[in-house]
From TrEMBL, chain A:
Residues 35-104 form the AP-5 complex subunit beta-1 N-terminal domain. Keywords: Protein transport, Transport. GO terms for biological process: endosomal transport; protein transport. The keyword Transport applies. It comes from Moschus moschiferus. GO terms for cellular component: AP-type membrane coat adaptor complex; lysosomal membrane. The keyword Nucleotide-binding does not apply. Residues 261-626 form the AP5B1 middle domain. InterPro entries: AP5B1, AP5B1_barrel, AP5B1_C, AP5B1_middle, AP5B1_N. Residues 689-758 form the AP-5 complex subunit beta-1 beta-barrel domain. Pfam families: AP5B1_barrel, AP5B1_C, AP5B1_middle, AP5B1_N. This is AP-5 complex subunit beta-1.
UniProtKB/TrEMBL annotation, chain B:
Its main location: cytoplasm. One of its GO terms (biological process) is endosomal transport. It is a peripheral membrane protein. Gene3D superfamilies: Mu homology domain, subdomain B. InterPro entries: AP2_Mu_C_sf, AP5M1, MHD. It is found in: Cytoplasm, Cytosol; Late endosome membrane; Lysosome membrane. Keywords: Cytoplasm, Endosome, Lysosome, Membrane, Protein transport, Transport. SUPFAM superfamilies: Second domain of Mu2 adaptin subunit (ap50) of ap2 adaptor (SSF49447). Belongs to the adaptor complexes medium subunit family. Probably part of the adaptor protein complex 5 (AP-5) a tetramer composed of AP5B1, AP5M1, AP5S1 and AP5Z1. GO terms for cellular component: AP-type membrane coat adaptor complex; cytosol; late endosome membrane; lysosomal membrane. This is AP-5 complex subunit mu-1. Residues 206-476 form the MHD domain.
Amino acid sequence: MGPLGREIWAQRLGAFRASPSAFMAGPEGEDLGRDLLSDLRSEKLSEPMKVALLALSLEYPTQLWPDAPAAEAAATSLLDTLVLLPPRPSALRRPLLLAATTALAAGGALSPASGASGRLLPLLLGLASGRDLGRSFGPASEQRPLQATAWECLRELESCRPGLLGGCLGLLRALLGREGPAQPLSLLLALALRNALVIQARAGTGLQGLLTAGDSSMEGGPWNWTLAEEGDVHLQPQAPSWPVAEEGECGLAVLELSPEEARELRATVAQLLDASYLLTPVAQAQLLWLLGWALRGLRGQPPVLFKPQLVRLLGTAQLTLLHAMLALKAAFGEALFTAQDEALLLRRLTLAAQHPALPLPTHLFYLHCLLNFPENWPLGPTGEEAAPLLLGSQLCRGLLPSLLHEPMALLARLHLLCLLCLEDEEKEEKGQDRSPRHYLEELLAGLRQRAALDGGPRALATLCFQASYLVAHCLAGQPVVLTPLTQGLAQLYRTRPALAPHFIDLLDRVGPELQEHLRVALRQEVVSRPGREEALRWHLQMLARVADGDAQSATLSFLQAAATHCTDWGLQQALLRVCRALLRAGVGGGLADLLQALARQLEDPDGQDHARLYYILLAHLAGPKLGVALGPSLAAPALASSLVAENQGFAAALMVQEAPAPIQLSVCPRRAEGPVPVLRLQVEVLEPVYSLELRFHVEGQLYAPLGAVHVPCLCPGRPPRPLLLPLQPRRPTPARLAVRALYSTPSGLTCHAHLPPLLVTFADLFLPFPQPPEGAQLDFFEELWDSCLLKGTESRLWCPLGPEGLEALVSRHLEPFVVVAQPPVSYLVAIRLPPDSRLLLRLEAAQADGVPVALRTDDWAVLPLAGDYLRGLSAAG
Amino acid sequence: MAQRAVWLISHEPGTPLCGIVKFSRRYPTVEERAKVFNGASYVPVPEDGPFLKALLFELRLLDDDKDFLESRDSCSHINKTSIYGLPVGSEELWPVVAFLKNGMIYACVPLVEQTLSPRPPLISISGISQGFELLFGVQDFLSSGQKTDSELNTKLSQLSDLLLQTCPFGTLLDANLQNSLDSINFASVTHPQKQPAWKTGTYKGKPQVSISITEKVNSMQYDKQEIADTWQVVGVVTCKCDLEGSMPNVTISLSLPTNGSPLQDILVHPCVTSLDSAILTSSSIDAMDDSAFSGPYKFPLTPPLESFNLCYYTSQVPVPPILGFYQVKEEEAQLKITVNLKLHESVKNSFEFCEAHIPFYNRGPITHVEYKASFGQLEVFREKSLLVWIIGQKFPKSMEITLSGTIIFGAKNHEKQPFDQICIGGTAYLKLHFRILDYTLTGCYVDQHSVQVFASGKPKINTHRKLISSDYYIWNSKAPAPVTYGSLLL
């Protein structure tokens, strides 16, 4: 493809800059890097357009050439383009050097193995040190800017790859003594020196003559990568000349230098500092930071070298210079700044933080520096903002807030004021009425007055609440401040209820010291003033946050009154949210009435449903369970929607959870009485269980469906009375009952468990006949006996007896059913088997080891069951 | 010390995005370092679109602040510096240095050479002050001499080239961008030894030194028993030294007459080579006494080529130049105002102009005015609800003038009439605007003979002086007024 036209490139660059990611994802994205490199050599494209292309590559090399091989190829191509430029003035040389440097450093291609690195580094060093590189490097007029650019490229490469220029330290030092621009050289030397010291300290070696060595790279030999390789492939976080960072982690292990090395180092640093006035203020600051870092970890290198610079720096208004001085202060503390120096620095900082000639962002930064001032002997814990000891109230006078300040300045100064109030309190009340605390109160009142302004911008309200929060946070332990604050805020709410969201936010964030009092005050504020309609929305929103179990009647009557005004859906929902809050707070009786009324009264079906739901929940759920049901869902805390959250809360709380059974169920010996057989069940629990419902299912539809059994509460160690389960057999036959339990746990969840099946035996169905009148028993039995044969059957069998004999067997198993007894040898037994069968037994002429039994039943199907039963009796004992 | 990216955004309220990115520059090599230094806490610099949106939201510059938004309006979301954390996706980009000045937002993201979690204190990040200096430099460049939109656009188009000079890899080399522009234009100057980096060439021509002292006086006057009036002079001394030689030495002295007010809080330009400790320690923080250093204030320096602010100072003069009171009484539908102004006898009674602006906030337009002025004329700006009392060039012999009047307002219309957050209820002020040439309130002056220049040729010395009012408020004494802590310490 031929070179693209100017318009096409302009269009492409525009589209790319609008959204680089979108462009790169598009069809033209893939070719952009390649086209750019090839068109840089096109003769059709103008120089300014080529500069624009290079500018793009300076900003987005990783998008154009996303991996190291691509970056290496791009850098090679850029260097080739540079070499091929005709020897006339060109605006492309500087950007080409910058672009090649950027491509290598940002693309991760800078390494001894990289051919482009091997070409670029000597080229840069040659240009920088002013060696003649031949005519290909353009006219003489371009040498100076190219030299400056080369220095900057080297500094950037050293920044990205510490130690890269370690081998050139001697050369750099020698160059610094000669003529030429001082700034780029000073900065590069300071950086390379700092990096070399860090790397050597980590390796535990000294400077090894690096500062005095001649330079091998200058003699055309291969680049010396030794130090860069030692410095790890990666950068190490190396900031902290700041004492806050833990000692030992500052990347500057303590380095011991030989006396000779120490002397050389001192000489180099002194040389750098002496020439520092030639640097621009920002560059001077960089130099001081670098040298501060470099010397911090060194033993026997007193920082007095910096002293001559300090007075000059103290006088300036330059942000970077004062900041660099603070860094030196942090790094060297008392070794560089005596107590008097510290006091002077603090005074300069204090005055700079309020100097009318400086802009607001500078003031704010200096205020930050004051509250984080690196003191020689800090008293408080590190990392916390505090007023330095030497910053007395006299010094602070000009730094206190006033309503005329910008919001940020006001908050920053307010913080300082709070710290002063704290100190003031510690010192004891002095009885003066213009104490900082009074001033604070007046200021807060002024802020509230502004926030109360109807139609005022939200920023004013926000500022008022931020200030209140800050004060409550800093002065949490001072009721003398918090009480008027609470009152003032309550009054603000009275004036402008539309600020309810701010109040709720404040309540959510302040500590308990203010929170509780403010909540009560706001609740009183709301319920004591039945809302006019426009404020009602806010009142309800507020009440949903502040309502609790106290002052129930006032709250409820407020709501009752409010209900008549809740005509639209939003208001109704707000009202119901308050009800919900009250439900959670455990408000009972009056609320039920209100909810019932709402369920009838609200026009909106959704509102009615909610009211009804809350009523049902209130009526049916115990307190803890209500709390869980209405509480915020733990399942998805990230979801902000109250609707979703509410539903999830319900879902988690009201959905039945499957659980292992905490209950053991067993069948007790039964009493044969009543019209139907009744199973007596014994329950044992392992943990408290509430609202237990046991559900039974008869397999095979042998019995009519069984009703559930309810138990309100079961506790371990307190066995309840047996539960009664009436059976309604459809056929007189044993059955298996599947059992499920539904219950609530103490944590409020509803659980569901399967219990082991219960067995209903044949004997469990036995019922006695009504007792015939005295004396008529035999006749009654004979009548039954005779009537059975009509549609039934008769059988005889041998019932074995144990050693105890017939009498014991009967009394144990058949007692309730005996109609006629002639102990110990003869019994006539009549058993009713629901639904409508009978079983008659004659046990007569018992012998030692058994008794012959004649049995009759009107139901054929019973016969085998009866046989089994009788044969099993002796075994049952 | 480096910056990861720089932006210039014009704030355009009323447009859909409320702003346009006018300029942006990213530094990919610094970004690579950020990745390594920040480790797991690294958050990449977003593209311009998302950055614009997040920044405007954080700075509260989007038009919509109707509803409470927790992420913006929460009481615990407190910013006490011009350094912000911007939500970008689910992460937060921090630190972002940003401020708004004259409708333009200046922003950059400094490199933090350590992990960001926990956040290191701002004071420990060298890139913060460097970032500020870069932005101030850009701001100075854009605002110097720039009046029209097309001039601004020309400057914006130069910015890319300038940053290639002064900040090629994200580390700032010189905050004075104008300097670099000049050096682009005069690239062929041969370099003598020890050329300072802040001086791009040498001057050729007639030697001359211009020094001008501008004093601004501000005041808050309450006319109340329990609140003290306050006033302060803020001075700036601007120099332009056209001298031959690469590093000419100059000493400039500021002098005070015998009854002059001592200069305090002196901040000097970095080109000043040494400072007397008396200059360094004279401060408004201390209580004044007779022993205060009263000059001469000597500043030895090596001047740069361009015009520069040699020093700033403040001073506490014994009396305000104009003492006044202002009373506003609300009577039914009308306001009755009384103003009294008195020029102090020691002040030069020769103004370039002198006006009293009397605004009425949070009210409707002015529908009717009746007034009586002992001196000067009154202009009425009905729609702006503003009265301007034009006093002119001179106070009368008595040095005292009065204005009284009755004003009636129409119905309030929120869009048209000015809103003010301070002037609530009866709180009201009038603001004085005046300028006096060839005069300073402190008496501070530059004696031509005291300027020492160690360079070839005897230079011509030009000196200028002027006094300007700035924030000169006189508050309605019949209502509460905002006070500073200083006014309460009677």
